[in-house]
Amino acid sequence: MSLSVSSGFVSEKRTLSNLLAGRVAKRPKQDDGQRLQEAAIQLLEQQQNLCALLREVENPDVCRILHTQSGEQKQAESECVSSAVSRSLLVCELRRQASQLAVPVAVLAVKMVLERLMEITGTEEVKEEEDQRRGLLTSSQRVQLCVLLESSKELLSQGVFCPKLLWQEYRRDQRLPKLEVVYHLHIYNVLTLKYILESDEGVRLWLASQLKALCSWTPPQEEDETRRVQQKVFSTVVGVLVGTGFEGSSEPAAADRRISVLCCSVLDDMLFWLLDTIEKSLSLQPAGAEAELWIQIFDASLCGVSASADALRRFFTHSLTQTLTYKPRLTVSDAITLQNEWTFAKVSWLMTSLFRKLAVIFSMEQLLCHLQQILETHEVNWKHVLCFLSTLLVYNPSAQPSLRELLARLLSSAFEGYDLESVITAFLLARQGALEGAGIFPSYSDWFKMSFGGNSGYHATSKKSLVFLLKFLSDLVPFEPPQYLKVHILHPPYVPVKHRNLLMEYVSLAKTRLADLKESVEDMGLYEDVSAAGGASVQCQAVQDVEKALSLFESTGRISATVMEASIFRRPYFLARFLPALLTPRVLPVKADTRMSFIEALKKADKIPAAQYSSYVESCQKQRQQDCSAVCLDTNDDPLEVLKIQLREFTELLVEGNDGEMSAQLSRISHTLSVIFPGHPDQLIGQSVLKLHINTPPSSELHVKVVNMILRNFCQCVLDASRANPPNKQNLWASRFVSALLGNTQLLSSLIQRLWDLCHNQGSLLSAGHLLGLAAFVVHLQASVSHAPLVQLVPPILPNPVPVGEALSSALVCSTHANMLFCVRLCVAAVCYGMCRGDSLPQQQQQDYILSSFYKKLLYLIPRLLPEARRAPITAGGPVSDYQEEDVPSLWSTATDTNSTWRKTAWHLWRHPAFHQLGHIPEYQLSFTEWLANELRVQRNEDTLSDPERQEFQQWACLELFLPRPEEQGGCGGDMKNLCSHMLHAIMDQHLSSHQSLEKLDHRVSETGTCLPDILSRVQELVYEMEVTDLSGSRGSRSVASDFLFELVSERCSSAVMSESGSISTELSLQHAVNTWNRVMLALPAVLFIKVKTEGGRTTLDCSKLIEHVNQHQRKACSPAGLLPCHLTAHLLRGVLCASARCGRSADEVNKAWSQISLRCPLLLVSTAHWWERLSPVLLSLWSRLCDGEPLPEQLQLLTDCQNWACSLEKGPLLVPAATPLLLAASLHCAWRGRGRDNQAISAALNTLRTEKGIQYRQVLVFLLFLSVSDYLSALLYPQEENRQKSRTFCTELLSVLVDCADWLLIFKSNALEQSVYHSVTMVASDEFTQMMPWAFYSLFLKQSAELQQRAVCCPGFLHTAVLCYISLMQLFLEGHTLSPTSECADSQMEPFQILSHAKQFLLRAIAQTSPAALSSSQLRQLESQCADLDPEVAAALSMHLDPHSLSPEMDFL
User: pTM for the complete prediction?
Assistant: First the structure.
């Protein structure tokens, strides 16, 4: 019995799950379910805890227990049994207890669900503070709540649950749930949000506060599900609010109206909160995140789930209205004044996002109509209104015409009813559009002129309308920005003559206001858009105004209204600026041009003062006399027409073959040209130099027409003459024609400029006939080189004046496929014509007709464009093919054949023996350097060759064409080093070459990349081949690549220094050379720069060349000074590691190499320590790859140890790594630079070092001081790169430790430094940088405390150092090496003369305070002699205060 009772007692304590789990050991039978139900009911009658029962029913483990042991085949049946049991158990128990308690079963069910809900949501004070702050439920709470609501729905379906009673009970104690709970009640259709809003008045404030809190709360990063629930809560709640608040109804009931107003108030409350938050976000950036979250709900796809399209439209309309009318605190005058600050670019992006969301479902017409309605019926927030308009204009191209229509409606209604508000609105909207730029809306000046500038303007209907406009403009004057006042003055509204006084009153008022603002309107241009920022100078603007006025006069035949108005209203500008620019003295043409006609029209209108016009005519006559241009034609015909007739007659005479008449006609043509191009007599005799301004357009339209006419006629003559005879069979008409042009320098200059323009810019537009004629013309220009002037290109892309042909050849840039095609066609035509024309002449005269530059271009282009030409290459030794065509005139017949292509003509020319024979002549040989220069100008993206084709061509040219060719013929003589040297020189010359300068002027070329990567690839191939094959022949030392490369860069850097005279230009040239070389170095394998030697059967590394290169060249080009770039440092160290892999004992070789670098290359040592944190992972990974299993070299481990020691020094004394003092100092310097302003840590570390009394620690501190002073000096030289205050603080901390020791003075004395233990610092920075150390000495020392200065003065040797630094500082000042304070640090940096003055005062005080024994007599004599010329006062102070007679004799030996 006791056992039985005990068992029963225990079973009362077990849960339903445990009970069921204990029963599944037996195999269930068919009637087990019924018996189980009965047993469970008996048990529950003893339990009596409904909430616990509900938890058990919710527990999914029940189902799992029932079917786990039964097998998968009975899973479905077990689940059904479990679900039925759960429902039956719960409902039966509810009914039983309800009957016992005599209460409705629904009341009991509500009590049970409410208790469970409170338990889940944790509203009792049992939750942690973190959970109380959460905006949403936790994942666990959410799962439990969903299960509870599922159970509640089951109860509701069985009629034992009342949701409304649940809400009443929940709210009985004024409790309010979290928003997510209400969301789930709504989603599970237990209690809808609409019912809650209708039944509870207190929900409105709670709902708004919950929404704001939820916006302000950000879910944890890992809770993606919570973030999705947050979005669903927002969209669901807003959808219900929109659907309830904005659903239209013809006659809504009172209750519906009340709930609709409540929903609207909640949404309005959130909108106002959003607008306030956006306003705060302008000053408080993080506040924008919560606003962005609420802006996202203004999405038609989110809100439209629970609301109809009409409701959504009404909601967006209402929200837009509320936004534009929210807090209308700004007046119209404020809007006029502040409007410039409310453009789209300046407004908050949150505001523009809101406007875009609100506008997305409306058309532009609807938006602007609604905007007009709001403006007419509400007090508006002008900032919101104008920002809304800017957003529409920027994002909607259709907004501009709609806004124009709105402005038209506003102005029409304004002047019809004299409505001041409408006209104010129109002006503000128009100005807002204009502020967004001409691409968005017309400028304000254009809009104002269009609206009020003519007699059809809105104000032109009556005097009352005019007065209304002027009164409005006058009222705006005190608030107007000056640019709008200028528009109104320069482009005044149309006013009838009888009312002109009204306008003048406004103009006077506006000018007075501009004078108060210190703005001038008199110097503004006639056609300038003054509403825009900036503008041209007064003189340039006047010239632009004249050109614009001439253009309008030419197109209309009338003087523009702007000029006429300026002659009245802007008379000072018109007389003092416009007319002088128009009446510039010149040689008047035979026939009146546009300018002359315009001047005559102004004179007839009495707009030009008589005296000014007479002076102009007089000056023009003097100009004609001075230019010897009084010669005129016998007739009054236009010289252009006369020349046209004369040229046509010359063509006819050429066809007839009448030589005598042709010569006479050329004389007549020359006479006509002398009238059109009057020249000075001294320009007609002898050879001179023409300056060709390649970027300046021709000065006269007449000259352009004449030049085009001459060239067209010459081309026609060439074609006509070639139909009858080849060039060598023709008479000398072409030579005579060109000779007739050479006598006129002005004409020749215009001709050459036109030819340059055609060759450089318009080649693709020329027909085959034009090409043939121009080619022949250029050939004859070159043949007349003894009579033609030389040409100097401006800008000077060619260093010296050159013949005409060479100048024109430089215009043929072979950089793109189109350029190459035009160039090869023109050069083929020119060479064919020249060879044919000189066929019957002696060889020397033949060369006069063949331009060497054109010939070289063909040597470059034909193999490039015709791969078959590479198989029959031209050589200087003669033709390599068996093609023996001797008929030279056949070349020209092929060139002029209309059925022939350029490819056929070029191939014919390439295989012709006469073409090959020119290769014997040195000036016709294309050198490898010239080939490289051409190839490096090719634009890869526009090349005619693909990447593989270009690689094939370049490899053929390098290895098959130029490598075996003798050096005297422009090749490399079979020397691979010579080949690589040419290529590297070409790469480094690329940015300095004259041709590159031309390409920089050509914007079309500079937009794409050159073939530099391809040439670098060829260099890589060749250098690798040199290294692998070891062509040097010295098998004991693999020095081919490293020695060769370092010798080449040394030669380049030396030549860069020698070629520049000035110190600054020398430094810049050297830096450019080294930086260019570094790009090449980084493109080559790092191992090539380390020499590997084999001696006595042992392979070792030799880094001497590398060390010499860094010390001599890299040191002088570092930026910042004293530090190699990280990528270069890594490249050099990778080279050491890779080269060590060739040695038998790699780790030992690395250690030896690094020891050598530590002693002889301090710059690389300091740079490695500085970048070690970034370099160590790369180098350690490389070492493990190269030497798998070998331990890390000691020197590499030492770098890591030094870094760790430096970072941990502040914590107390540590074991110092066995490294050099400089390496320790560099490690400390790197570690402390990264600590920002952590001065306490630095002081602690310095105190740790101060406690150590060894010499090594003092040396570390002195080296560290040098590095810190270098930082400080760099901060003075380059303020944008360094923090001066931080560097000065480091130096002060170090000085406070070292000031009593004389060693620190050595770093400021370069002469004494060479013999000290600190000599290595001289090889860290450049000599120019070291020369500035005296400047750093005084700039730093003058800012120290008086106590520290006094301690320094007492330091042995301080005075000697201070005087030497002062002398050096004086010399720097006299040589102009001074520093100018930058604007951002001018307050803390003294002017150069101030530093010099303060340094002198400090030095005089130091001399007075110093004991005579501080200097030996020899030191004193030396300082006195050096100061005598530079500063006698300092020399006198030394003599007076430091009397040499008081010194002991022993001091003379110091």
Answer: 0.56
